[in-house]
C-alpha cells in the first residue's frame, strides 16, 4: 500500500521527547518518565509537574476558559511570531514541543508587583469567587502581546470562550477596555481614580515585552521529528514533512495500530469517546500544510491553517478590495462566531472538516461555507499522489489513510454573485448551530432580480446526510426574486424538502425547518433590497451584538470610610495573580489517591450486581468503594430525609452514585471508573416531568404530590369601597424549568488522615453539616473531624448540602485506605450527580375588577423536588409569591412533587425567585386580559401600611408595617430610565417593522430579608507587638465579598487601616456549629458579630486608653498587652441581638429586540435600582447585583435542561449543550443604581443584603421578550393571550411569533 524510499525519521533528525518553557523554565518530557502519555494534557502538566496552580480547569472541553495560558512560537510555514491564548485542557503535552508557555504566575505577584492587566481587574471589581480570573487575565494578556494596538472591539470579541458566573462580565469588560487604545473617556476617568489607590503590596512592574520573545525564539523554526514510544504501547509521532506523515501512517497500519491525526486536538472537547488509539500523528509542524495564498484563481489555504489565521487572512483580502472576493468579509464574520478565540487559535480547517467527515451529524460551519462557495479539497493518498475533490462529494468518500493537504476557494469575478451565510445558535458566542445556512446566487443586474443559474442552498443541522436543498435550487432557476409567487414556490418546495431529524437535545424539527425557510427569505430580502417594502426590509438583517457599556450610581459617605467605600476585594490581587489557593490547588499529599465516581446509567430500577474487577486490574488502581464499605450509616443528609452516599440497591435517578474508584492519579481513576460494570433489574421508564393532580386534590395523587398546604390572606369584604363592581376572571398555568448552578469550581474535597483526627478540606457552604455527616458515616466522634475552608470557587447554593455528598464519599475512602484521598468532580459528573434549581408550575384563577385590582385569587403551586424531598424551597416560594402586593382575597396551595431525577437543591434566591416570578406572571396576564399597562396593574395592587401578610413573619407580625418605597422609585425610574419616551419608541418601532420587534417590561420587588436565626461565630484577635488584627468567622467566602466587608467593619470599629487586618480560613473550631452560608444574610451577620467582638475589645481597652494621652493604636495595643488585657474576643449573632428583619426594594426596566424570523434577540438596555441601604461596599454590592441579574438572564432564556426520556440521563451535561450567558449575552446598556439616600435603620451598620434580590428581577427580560412576541402575533393577526413558559429560548420565540412562511411577501 505504501512505499517508503527512505525514512523521514532518522536518529540524526528525530528525538523521543518534547521540550518547552513554562514561565522561562525549561521542561523536558520523556516517555521513560512514566508520568505523562499521549492523553496527558498541558493543564495537568502545569498543575501537577510545574506546580503552577494558578491555571484552573473545569469543563475540559474548551468551553469555559478557566485553563487559558499564553503560548508563543513561530509559525512553521511563515516564520512569523505567533502569540495566542490556548485551552491547556485540550492541548496534549506532547504537542508542546518548542513552545514558550506563560501562566498567570508570570505576570505578577505580591512580591514583585502586578501587571497592568491584573491591577485593572482588581481596581474595576472584576473578580468575585476568582476561579475564572486567571483564564480571563491570560486571554487578555495574549491579546495585548499579540497586538501592538488593542481596540475595544477586540475586547468585546475576546471573552467568547470565558465563562464567569459571578460578575455578570461588565466589570471585566470595563477593566480590559480601559487598557484599549480607544478606551471610552469614562473608563479612563475610573482608571485614573483607581490609580490613586494602587493595589496593596504592589509595585507595578512593566508588562512582559514581546520584544524579549524575539530574542528567546530562533528566527527560523527549528523543526525536529519526534517519535515517542510509551510503556502502554502507544506511540506519538511528530513529522515535519508530508512524507513523514505517510511514513507514520504506514508504520501504524503495518503494526495494526489504530491511529489519530492530531492538529490542535480541539475536537476531543466535543467527541470525547473516539478511539481508543494506539498511534498519534501530530502534523502541526508540517510547513507544507500551512500555506495561505491568493491569486487569480482564488484563495488557497493549507490544511493546518487555524481558524484564527483564516479569519485574519480573509479580513486582509476584504480590506484589499480585490475583485472577485466579496465573500471574504462575510466569511470572516461567520468564522468569528465559530467556537471561541482559544479554540480558533489552534483548531485547523482540516481538523474541523474531518470532524464533519467522521461525525456527519456535526454542523460544521467551515464545511457549510466551503460547500456553498464550490470549494475543492486537495487530498493526498501518499506523499506523491493528490487529487482534487469537490466538497460535497468528499463527504461521502473514504479518507482512510488519506490526508487533506489544502482547500481552494474559487474567485467569483462576476459581480452578479451574492454570497450569504448564517449561524443560528442557542447563544450568540461559543455555541454550535441549531441550523446554519449558506447561499450563493447569481442574480441579473436588472430590476427583476432574476436567478440566472442554479443557486447553492446549503444547510447544516438538518440530518447527518442532508447538505443541499437541490429541489429548491432547481425551482428558483430563471425566476425573479421580486415575484411573490417565486418566493412562495420556493417556500413550499423547501417545506417538503427539509425533514429534520428528531434527536434530543437538538432543537425541535419544527424549529429547524422554520429556520431554513426564514434564512432563505432573509437572503431573498437582502437581494431585493430597497425594492422590498419598508416594513419587510428589517427582515434581511441579523441581530448583531453591540458594544457594551454600563453605568453605576451610588452614594458615598466619606465620614464612614472604610465602610461605604468602594474598595477592591481583599483577595482580588491574589486571585489575579494565581496566588489564591482553592481546595483543588492544595498540592498532592504523600500517598494521595484520587477518587472518581461510578454513576447509575438508569433512573429507575434495582442494582443486580456490581463488578469492579476490570477496573482493579489496571495498574495503580487501589480500591473500589461502595455502599457495603461505609463504616457507619450510608447517609450524607443527617439533618433531614436520608440520602445514600452510595446506592445500596434501589436506583432513584440517572447519575446516582454507585461507588468510588481510587487511583493514583486523576486520569487513572477516571479511566478505571469507566470499566466498572453495573447490571440492573426491574428497570422502568422514569417519570421526568411532574405528574400533577387534576384541579381538585384527592388522596390518589399523594404518591407523587408529597405535601399539601394552604396559605391565605384575609377574605375581601363585599362592601370594599376600593373595588370596582365589574369583574373579570383571569386563569391559566405557568411553568418554568430548573437551572444548573454552573459554579466554576466543581464539587471538591480532600481528606487527610492525621494522628488523632481526619483533616478535611471541603468546598462546602455548610461546615457543620459536612462535619456531622462525615462523623456519622465514619462512626467517629465529631471532634475527630477537622474542616477548613479558605474559599470556594462559586457555589450559588449547590455546596450547601450537596458538597456533603462528595465529602462523605471522600472521607469514607480515606478512612478505608488510611490514605489521603481527593475527589474533584469532572463537569459531567457534577451535572449528573447534583440536583438543580427546582422547576415550578402554578395554576391560577384570579378575579379582578375593572381597574385591575385583584378581588380574589386561588392558585396551586407545585415545586418539582426530584427523587427526594430535602432541599425544598416551597415555603419561601409561598412566602414570596406575595412580593409587593396586597393579598386580601388570596389563597395559595403549595405542593412538592417527586420525579425520577437528582434531588433538586438550593440555587441562588431559592424559592424567592420562583415565588416572585409566579406572581409577576399573574400581573402580566391580568394586564394583557384588561389591555392595560402592566405597571398600572402592579401599582393598583401594591402593598401598603397595614396590608396583610400571606405568610406572617411571626405570630405577632401579620401585617406589613412601613412605607412601600416602590411608588417613589417608579417616579424616579420614569425620569432616569426615560421610560415613557422609550415605550413610545418601542411602539413606533414595532409599527414600522414586520420582522423585528421590541419589548419593554418593568418588574418591582419587595424582598423580605429574614435572618432566620442563622449563627456565625466571629473571633477577633489583636497582636500586641504591632497591633495587627486577625479575624476568623463562621461564614464561607465564595465571591460575595464577606471577608472584605468584615475587614472593613473591623477597620471602621478600631479606626485602623484595613491593611492591618487579615481574615483567616473558616474552620469548625472557631466556627463551630455555624450555620450555612447563604440566603444573603451571612455577610451582614458576620459583620454584626464582628462589631460586637470589636466593641468588647474596645470596652476592655478603654480604662487603659483613658490613662494614656492620645496613644496611637500600636501604643495602645502594646500597653494593653503589657498589663495583661485579653486581646481576643468573639461573638455570635442570636435572636436576642438588636438586628431586625427588613424589606429590600427593587425595580428593573428591561428592553429587548427580537428577530421574528429566527428567534434571535438582544437585550438592549437594563435599568436596575436596588435598595441596598447604606452599602458597606458599593463595588462589591454592584458586582453582586450585576452577577445575579445575568444569572437570571440565563435561567429565563438559554439554560435549558434536557433529559433522555428512556434512561433519564441528563443530556445537557457539559458546555457543548448547556449554555449559561457569556459576555455577549449581557445587556448592551447595563445601568445599576443603589437607591440614593436610603440608609437601613434595621440592618447591620445601616446596610442591606444584595446577593439574591436582583436575580428575582431577571424575569423582566422574559416579560420584555413576551411583549415583543405579542407585537409579532398581532401582526400575524392573532390577539389571543398565550402563556409562554420559561426558559424562553430562541426556538420558543420563533414558534410563538407565529411566523408563517406561507405569508412571506416582498
Structure description:
With 1306 residues, the protein is of the alpha+beta class. The strands form 9 sheets. An 8-stranded mixed beta sheet has the order 22-24-20-31-28-29-30-39. The chain is globular and about 95 Å long. About 1% of the residues have low confidence.
What is the element layout, followed by pairings?
Layout (H helix, E strand, L loop, with lengths): L13 E2 L2 E5 L2 E5 L12 H8 L18 E7 L6 E7 L12 E3 L13 H8 L9 H14 L5 H7 L11 H8 L7 H11 L14 H7 L8 E5 L5 E4 L3 H13 L4 E4 L16 E4 L9 E4 L2 E5 L4 H14 L7 H8 L5 H6 L2 H10 L6 H8 L3 E5 L5 E5 H5 L7 E8 L6 E9 L7 E10 L13 E5 L9 H7 L7 H14 L11 H20 L20 E5 L18 H6 L15 E7 L5 E7 L1 H5 L3 E6 L23 E2 L5 E7 L2 H8 L3 E5 L27 E4 L14 E10 L11 E6 L4 E5 L4 H12 L6 E5 L12 H16 L3 E4 L2 H7 L6 E10 L4 E13 L7 H7 L9 E9 L13 H19 L3 H7 L25 H11 L2 H14 L3 E14 L8 E5 L6 E5 L8 H13 L6 E3 L2 E2 L14 H25 L6 H10 L5 E4 L10 E14 L5 E10 L7 H19 L32 E6 L18 H4 L2 H17 L14 H7 L10
Parallel strand pairs: 1-7, 2-6, 8-10, 9-10, 19-43, 20-31, 29-30, 33-34, 37-38, 42-43
Antiparallel strand pairs: 2-3, 4-5, 4-6, 7-8, 11-12, 12-15, 13-14, 13-15, 16-17, 17-18, 20-24, 21-23, 21-25, 22-24, 26-34, 27-32, 28-29, 28-31, 30-39, 32-33, 35-41, 36-37, 36-40, 41-42
Q: Distance N terminus to C terminus?
A: 59 Å
Structure summary, number of beta strands:
43
Radius of gyration: 31 Å
Proportion of strand residues = 15-25%
Q: Choose one word for the global shape.
A: globular
| Strand arrangement, major sheet | 22-24-20-31-28-29-30-39
**What characterizes the major β-sheet?**
8 strands, mixed
Keywords: 2Fe-2S, FAD, Flavoprotein, Iron, Iron-sulfur, Metal-binding, Molybdenum, Oxidoreductase
Protein name: Indole-3-acetaldehyde oxidase
Domain 2Fe-2S ferredoxin-type: 16-107
Domain FAD-binding PCMH-type: 229-414
